[in-house]
Write a structure and sequence with these properties.
- This protein is an all-alpha fold.
- 75% of the residues lie in helices and 0% in strands.
- It is elongated, with a radius of gyration of 22 Å.
Length: 56
């Protein structure tokens, strides 16, 4: 019978809790890229007179 001790599982979870620095930077860059792609649409709604949609 195979079993997982709680401390072993806790150790693995701690190791996997944080990305390595390079991966973390890539995740942050991807998030900011998504924001940069969505932001212009909010500005355009106000520019064409649709103030209600531009307020978010």
């Amino acid at each position: 019978m195979v079993r997982d001790d709680p401390l072993d599982l806790l150790t693995v979870r701690r190791v996997l809790a944080w990305y390595p620095d390079d991966v973390w930077r890539c995740v942050l860059a991807a998030g900011w890229l998504r924001v940069s792609q969505e932001e212009p649409f909010v500005g355009r709604t106000g520019g064409c007179g649709d103030d209600r949609s531009g307020r978010g």
